[in-house]
What does this fold into?
Amino acid sequence: MGKTLFEKIWESHIVVEKQNEPALIYIDRHLVHEVTSPQAFDGLRMNDRKVRRPDLTIATMDHNVPTSDRSLPILDQTSAVQIKTLENNCKDFGIKLFDINSPNQGIVHVIGPQLGITLPGSTIVCGDSHTSTHGAFGALALGIGTSEVEHVLASQTLWLEKPKTFEVRVEGKRKNPHAVTAKDIILSIIKNIGTAGGTGTVIEYRGEGITDLSMEQRMTICNMSIEGGARAGLIAPDQKTFDYLRNREYTPQNYDSLVDNWKVNLQTDSDATFDKTFVLDINDIAPQVSWGTNPGMTCDVNESIPSPDEFSNGDANQKKGAEKALEYMALESGTLIEDIEIDRVFIGSCTNARLEDLIEASKVIQGQKVASNVSAMVVPGSQMVKKQAEEMGLHKIFIDANFEWREAGCSMCLGMNPDILSPGERCASTSNRNFEGRQGNGGRTHLVSPVMAAAAAINGHFVDVRKLDLN
Amino acid sequence: MEPFHNVKSIVTPLDKVNVDTDQIIPKQFLKLVQKSGFGKFLFFNWRYDENENLKSDFVLNNSKYDNSKILVAGDNFGCGSSREHAVWALDDYGFSVIISSSFADIFFSNCFKNGILPITLDSAIVEKLQHETNQIEVNLENQVIKTSSENIPFEINSHKKKILLEGLDDIAQTLEHEEKISEFEKNSTVPSVL
It folds into this structure.
């Protein structure tokens, strides 16, 4: 019987395998950042261990770096200590670091692909759940905890139980691909499968609705696999993948022969079977807006907020969850999404802060101003994205519209740096999580695409971007 | 890691589904560079009001549960961020067993690295345990939870059970496979990033 793409990558990385036990899997790439690594390096020191393969490891600082003027010292002392600790650890253990002043600094999941460090068919780990992003290139990319970070640093391997396979087939064509984006596809998927729908599985996204997408859009899809509970998300590499990675700073020298090999080996066989399948037809899907406190609590922009009864389908616990979410969000069932007014707009994060995201958002705001009651910011995903955007003049469009134009980092996706919501503030955000307090204690997050966030910034409330001329 | 021993305690019922790691330990506490001392920040935004006074309506603030070592929570516990700080906080606070109808994968895996036993049970049983007011006993060796009225068996992967019972150092074990790792590397063609 045929094999899935996941099974092929898995099998080619087994170092030790025993029946009914986890397998020891080799890790090709280890990405490190400042927040989940200090305790791992400490563990190495305590046990007198080295980093086994510093040549397969890279580090950057993204989670708590300020996005304001980089020439100024970091005021938050605990952040400064954590950043300094990463610098020291990289120096002590011989790891390449893209530090706060590097032109390659940025969100780890944005810089990996941009530098050609992410490769098809490879295994990639990082102490961050959004590592699933790299799956867009046909890599098996897993988020791990700090103990596992230490394990990979010491051994370049990881004990893993073999996940199940989950096919998510996206069929059809979007009528207006500028208004209905990859973000709306993945939010629709999560709305349907639920936030635990992918638990214990690796999702492979397939179908015309996926192959149609650009690499950056595919990253948005895979990025939010974890929001559906999945261990990882995968998309089989194709010509778009190979073209994207060609001539990057770390693209391997024998690239053409690698591509020949990937073309043959990195596809799910036609007779392979998956443990489960979900099919989404995108012919008629709408832009999505989350209304609750997890990414599954999402509806179409032209709908109204569902009642907890409608949302929960008879599950008493889910109903209670929805009631609590509406209370936290200060929203009522029946309110039209387009009537929800917002205070803040955040365009950023490893989900939606790549060049295409900024280009699409800039089309919405060109020649207009942010609504007077709204404050809006753009945080490019990496310094390289920022530079490319500035070369295209995008920063002028944003600044002229009264958006703040910032330096790269995770920023208000999780609010570890000074970019946070105040209690009660309502934000249209292109990030990935609308958990209670995620963007600041008491802050209220609505997850949307970059074009939806940009349109909300201009209008002061959500609008259906299908009504706009975005071509 | 310390070996896991049987746990006898009353349960702390956390009547919520989809408890994400942002709730277990909010981001402002992730800046510390050590593993200890996170217990006081556990469920911070649910435990404390804006003036950092205890909220009387949150279950952890009921003194009845002060010495509880067993947390019983709703579906999909530990979803979201991979932060192991969530497990460090639960551990430091005093929990050594978490019972739920399902766990998020990364959180589940992080538990075993820190000597915490996550137990997955049917949602009807989880709900019943949330109302259990007497002490219960969790016996990992025999894979059973003893309540005042019944014995509830639970499943656990034998490898994971061994790790907890023996308190094994994962990395030391792995490095015993050094030869196989080196052999794998000989045939691996992944280019360096240096």
In short: Chain B touches chain A through 58 residues (CB under 8 Å). The longest strand of chain B covers residues 11-14.
